[in-house]
Structures are given as C-alpha cells and as structure tokens.
Design a protein that fits this description.
Low-confidence stretches: 13-68
Largest sheet: 6 strands, antiparallel
Order of helices and strands: EEEEHEHEEEEEHEHEEEEE
Distance between the termini: 10 Å
Shape: globular
Helix content: 10-25%
Structural class: alpha+beta
Length: about 280
Amino acid sequence: MQHFDVTLQVILVVEHLEGLIAVGAGRYDCLDTGLLDQGHILFGLFQEVFLVAHLVGPAAAACLSITGDTEISARLIRDLDPHLVALQEVDSGSLRSGYVNQSRYLANQASMPFWCHQSNRKVGTVAYAGNGLLSRYEPDLVVEHRLPGVIPGRGTLLARFGHDCHGLDVAVVHLALGKRARIQQLRFLARELDSGRHLVVMGDLNTQVDSDPVRQFREVLALRAPTRGLATYPSWQPQRAIDHILVSQSLTAGVAEVLDVTYSDHCPVALDIELPEGV
C-alpha cells in the first residue's frame, strides 16, 4: 500500500453539456468502451463530474472536480497534474461520447496510470453513464455498490487505499432526485461504508447536508460537512447547496470554496483536507 502524508485539496463540479459530443471514434481506437450514467439524456443534456486529488508530498496535496467536454476536461486535469480523480456521469462508449470511453480517455490524456469504472444506467446506444475513478496510486481494493431505488441506475464507486484502520476510503456518490430514494440510498451507504477508516464522501447529493437524512448519515459515519451552506446550483445564480464533500472527523479540513465558473450548471467546490501520518 502507499502511505500518504499530505493535504488534499478537493474540488467538486457537476456539469450539463448541451447536445451530443461528436467525437470521431477512429481518433481513439486505442480506447476501450467504459461506463457512464446519464439522467438527462432524453433532454439532450449531459452531466460530468470529476473529483481530482493532488497528493504532492508532506502536508501538500489537492483534490479537484472539474467539468467540460472531454477535451477541455483532459486539458484541465493534465494542467492540474492531480493524483486522484473521481468521475460522475462520464460516458463509457456510446453515441453520446462518439463511442469513446471518457474515463479511459481522460486517464490516458492526463497520464493517470490507474482507472476504474462503474456502469450504472444505459439508454439504448445513445448513452451509458456511471461513476469513474482515475488515480496515480493503485487502490488496494475497488468496490461497486448499486444504490436502491424504484428507478435503477444509481451507484457508488468506492476506492480503498490500505487495509487497516489507518487507510483511506474515497466514495463517489450521486444520489437520486427523489427524497424517498435518497433516504434509502443514504441508509444503505451508512451500512456499507466504514466509519473506522478515514473516509471522504463526495458528489451531488441533490439535497442539503443539514437535511434530516444526510444529517443522520453523517452522524452514523462521523462525517463533517465543510461544504455546508455553499450554494452551487445553478451556476449562473447559485441558490442551492447540493454538491458536497464530506470528511471523517479524523481528517482536518480547510475552508471550502465555491469557484465562480459557469461552464457547468453546478459550480465547483474546492476544499483542502489534511491527511494524518500513516495514511
């Protein structure tokens, strides 16, 4: 296992892209097909969420979530030179992406040696969406969870670094729009995630962190909400705080920041997280 003695700077972004991304498959014939989740495909809107983490030496690292089409996203990731990238609603090789696995493409373009996918929702040949993870460090274990709900297609991708209680777990979560489904999903995750390890949970929760279901979830897993109250949606006039990064009480979080960009309908959220020695 790798040992991290660093600070993570976390940024979470959700994006809707209008129209199909017409990418010639021939340009990327070295790539496999992957996975992706697209809740708004029928309306021609696309979401991409990327969480990027820099692990750059003692007490210095960064996590970032970015959005944009795959070309812009790859360039941003490459420029940021991150060590960990969490992806939501990236395409695995459907018409939507020009039959390109966006997770694999981003990993290749950003020189990220380790990548994995969780396929969640397929809409014919038009879209195939889900969660992804890119990393410069090889996780010791990657686990996929199918989240409960009347409408299938939600999931959580969990990467585990280290095997003991000093290890780090990173969970990429995108919860349902409906309150009843979110409650089911949060209860499921509260049972499946390990509060005995250092834990970071990030993603579009589609609700505020002080809502009763999320508050109960945080209490069970001993998670703090440094992104509390930071409005991220819609990006052109943020009013709703629904995109969050939750961290274990064992981790020291800095001041969270919403980045003022409008290339997504959700603003990015940035956060510094200091990891203790031995992680």
